[in-house]
Amino acid sequence: MRFAPDDQIGNYHVERELGSTSTGTLYQVVHVVLPRRAVLKVTALPPFAKLLLREACILEALRHPGAPQLYESGLLADRRPWFCAEQIDGVTLVERIVQGPMSAFETSLLVRDIAAVLEHTHRRGLVHRGLRPDRIVLTPHRRFPICIPDWSDARTHDAAHAIPHVPSPGSRQYVAPELVRGDVVDDRADIYALGVI
After folding, report:
1. Within 13 Å of residue 99, how many CA atoms lie on the same side as its CB?
2. Do 78 and 20 lie in a common domain?
3. C-alpha to C-alpha distance for 12 and 39, rounded to whole angstroms
4. Counting Cβ atoms within 10 Å, is residue 69 exposed (0-12), middle (13-18) or buried (19+)?
5. 86-132 pLDDT, tens digit each
6. Is residue 2 part of a domain?
7. What domain range is 19 assigned to?
8. pTM of the model
9. CA 168, CA 101: separation in Å to the nearest integer?
């Protein structure tokens, strides 16, 4: 079941569909009372319910300005889970690269900021597993200069190898070899991706 503009999910009115990910459909929504726009993700199929709930729990555990803030989560009448998180506005790293070369200084700040998010992630016992340029948003008007909005591939250290990772064709070059092989994955997989970026 898809949602249309003005449908209500929890405390949010749907404005428009943004697209889909491997685990669900994304909607731009607005809170019914608060002046807050957000992104709401709802699973399309029951097999992805656990993955969507895991992503919501990961966002809640992160609590870092380099990741979207989780606002709310719930279940639809048909028991499909959903969560609502901060809408991240900015340009992706891919879009920035297309604009032209980055200075050494700009590049060093970018690497520092991404590394700070990854360090925080790893201290929380998590591995992102899906870092790539289109999943990094430059956010000059937020309190932190970058944001990684998509955490659907992330896992805890103890579960980082429990679910095989099949990279999409556009992301294979950023995926650490051990992740492709299905080996145990730790923080080094994210550091590998950052190095390739």
Report:
1. 8
2. yes
3. 10
4. middle
5. 999 999 999 999 999 999 999 999 999 999 999 999 999 999 999 99
6. no
7. 8-86
8. 0.89
9. 26
